[in-house]
């Protein structure tokens, strides 16, 4: 575990502040500072960006972001126990680290960040997907961020980048790929973390598109995909029949076989369907 700055190794920080990871907070600390610096580099050039980090814990990734030249980092940490360790990092990087002891689900980050903004985080497992969905569904598009570089459980990462006719393909893939270019850029084994989770993890980098990939009615797209994948073993003529009585005709109108199942249908077809059903 190499050193990337003049601050103590993370194991010493954790010991000094008695930071035992809490399962109820979804915490798994990444202690290898070479790995955290690598994740920071995967986010791209940070020198002209503000960076939002959620769930920094003892600050391993925070240090990576600052070492790799982030203009400024906003770190939102719910766990009061971690704040003192983060304040030590802030003292070592004057004016470049702002710490909020808060729940990221409750914070309006826009008042703390100056564009351009990148989001880079080892997200707490218990809120990671919810935060991603919120970042992908703002009231107005494009959103406040340019890119998201996020750590998830590997199975969640695979759902984000999944293609049609695969078991991981579903609403999360459609939502991410409608407005972004997502790709898995790194995988990590359980032993990279303390405590070691039961599953592998992966970093997903999502670059936003200025406009959605295909025209669609957002509300109807959400409704259609929820119904279709909520009963993914059913034919679409059955899973979507509650939408309207002529659903089979509407499916055919956009080139969808009414006997097809949700996992067989690409994003372009779902978007087209949302427009004629709006």
Describe what is shown at a glance.
With 278 residues, this protein is an alpha/beta fold.
Q: Which quaternary structure do these chains form?
A: single chain
Low-confidence stretches are none
Radius of gyration: 21 Å
For the largest sheet, list the strands in their spatial order.
4-3-2-5-6-9-7
Average pLDDT number: 94
CATH class of the largest domain: Alpha Beta
Number of strands: 9
> What name does the CATH topology of the largest domain carry?
Rossmann fold
Which structural category fits the helices and strands? alpha/beta
The number of helices is 11
Give the helix level as a range of percent. Answer: 25-40%
The gross shape turns out to be: elongated
CATH architecture term of the largest domain: 3-Layer(aba) Sandwich
SSE pattern, N- to C-terminal: HEHEHEHEEHEHHEEEHHHH
Can you summarize the main beta sheet?
A: 7 strands, mixed
Residue share in β-strands: 15-25%
The count of domains is 2
Strand-helix topology:
Blueprint (H helix, E strand, L loop, with lengths): L9 H7 L12 E2 L2 H10 L7 E5 L5 H8 L4 E5 L6 H10 L4 E4 L16 E6 L5 H9 L10 E7 H8 L9 H9 E9 L4 E2 L6 E8 L9 H13 L5 H4 L7 H7 L13 H11 L1
Parallel strand pairs: 2-3, 2-5, 3-4, 5-6
Antiparallel strand pairs: 1-8, 6-9, 7-9
Task: Explain what the structure shows.
35% of the residues lie in helices and 17% in strands. The chain is elongated. It has 2 domains: 10-208, Vaccinia Virus protein VP39 (Rossmann fold, 3-Layer(aba) Sandwich), CATH 3.40.50; 218-277, Helicase, Ruva Protein, domain 3 (Orthogonal Bundle). Helix 2 (33-42) packs across helix 3 and helix 8 packs across helix 11. Strand 5 (117-122), helix 5 and strand 6 form a beta-alpha-beta unit. The protein has helices spanning 10-16, 33-42, 60-67, 83-92, 128-136, 154-161, 171-179, 218-230, 236-239, 247-253, 267-277; strands at residues 29-30, 50-54, 72-76, 97-100, 117-122, 147-153, 180-188, 193-194, 201-208. The protein is of the alpha/beta class and 278 residues long. It contains 11 helices and 9 strands. Strands 4-3-2-5-6-9-7 form a 7-stranded mixed sheet. Strands 1-8 form a two-stranded antiparallel sheet.
């Amino acid at each position: 575990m190499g050193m990337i700055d003049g601050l103590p190794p993370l194991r010493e920080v954790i010991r000094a502040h008695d930071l035992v990871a809490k399962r109820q907070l979804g915490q798994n600390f990444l202690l290898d500072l070479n790995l955290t610096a690598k994740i920071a580099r995967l986010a791209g050039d940070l020198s002209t960006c503000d960076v939002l980090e959620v769930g920094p814990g003892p600050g391993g990734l925070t240090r990576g972001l600052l070492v790799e030249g982030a203009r400024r980092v906003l770190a939102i940490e719910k766990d009061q126990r971690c704040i003192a360790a983060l304040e030590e990092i802030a003292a070592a990087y004057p004016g470049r680290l702002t710490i909020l002891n808060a729940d990221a689900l409750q914070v309006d980050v826009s008042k703390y960040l100056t564009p351009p903004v990148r989001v880079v985080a080892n997200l707490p497992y218990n809120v990671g997907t919810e935060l991603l969905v919120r970042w992908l569904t703002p009231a107005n598009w494009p959103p406040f961020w340019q890119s998201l570089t996020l750590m998830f459980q590997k199975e969640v990462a695979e759902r984000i980048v999944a293609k049609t006719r695969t078991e991981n393909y579903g609403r999360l893939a459609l939502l991410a790929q409608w407005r972004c270019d997502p790709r898995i850029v790194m995988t990590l084994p359980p032993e990279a973390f303390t405590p070691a989770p039961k599953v592998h993890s992966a970093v997903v980098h999502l670059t936003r598109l200025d406009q959605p990939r295909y025209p669609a009615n957002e509300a109807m797209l959400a409704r259609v995909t929820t119904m279709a994948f909520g009963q993914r073993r059913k034919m679409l003529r059955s899973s979507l029949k509650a939408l309207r009585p002529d659903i089979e005709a509407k499916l055919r109108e956009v080139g969808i076989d009414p006997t097809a199942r949700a996992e067989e249908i690409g994003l372009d077809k779902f978007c087209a369907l949302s427009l004629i059903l709006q």
